[in-house]
Amino acid sequence: MTGHPIHLGRQAPSGTQERELHTEHAIFIVGAIVKPAAPTAYESVTLLNVTDRTMDLTGWSLANKFKRKYPLKGTIEPGQYLTVPLTLPGYSDYLRQRGDIITLLDTNGLKVHGVSYTRSQVRSGWTIRF
């Protein structure tokens, strides 16, 4: 596996330790807007939490083909999507319009999920579905 287990430290109802959750099966990159339609809009990446637990993304990051990391924060609820606008200063054009790789990394810097896209998939204002 590429991800290490998340130790939640919670007790299961029976009084036994709850099973570990492996991050590589927890959150997936499901979409990205690489070329926003409006000049004032931002690129974004959409994540999906497939687990039955709220996941804290503090310390997690996105990485592009050049291994440049975009820090994440906040939480994503069970079964929910979270769209992350790439708004931090210095990250304009973080996702390359001619194709790129997007990797989701956990707090240990381990790959949780990764996707790629090509130039032909990039359309102004459209979300690329992975």
Oligomeric category = single chain
Main β-sheet, spatial strand arrangement:
9-4-3-12
Q: Report the major sheet.
A: 4 strands, antiparallel
Are there runs of 5+ residues with pLDDT below 50, and where?
5-12
Strand content: 35-45%
Question: Would you tell me the overall average pLDDT?
Answer: 88
Secondary-structure element order, N to C? EEEEEEEEEEEE
Structural class: mainly beta
The N- and C-terminal alpha carbons lie at a distance of 21 Å
Q: What is the gyration radius calculated from CA atoms? A: 16 Å
Q: Which term fits the overall shape?
A: globular
Helix run count: 0
Number of strands: 12
* Helix content estimate: under 10%
Which SSEs are present, and which pair or pack?
Layout lengths: L4 E2 L14 E2 L4 E7 L10 E6 L5 E2 L4 E3 L5 E3 L3 E2 L4 E5 L13 E7 L5 E8 L9 E2 L1
Antiparallel strand pairs: 1-2, 3-4, 3-12, 4-9, 5-8, 6-7, 6-10, 10-11
Description:
The protein is mainly beta. It is built from no helices and twelve strands.
Short structural description:
This protein is mostly beta strands.
Key features of this structure:
mainly beta, four-stranded antiparallel beta sheet, about 0% helix, globular
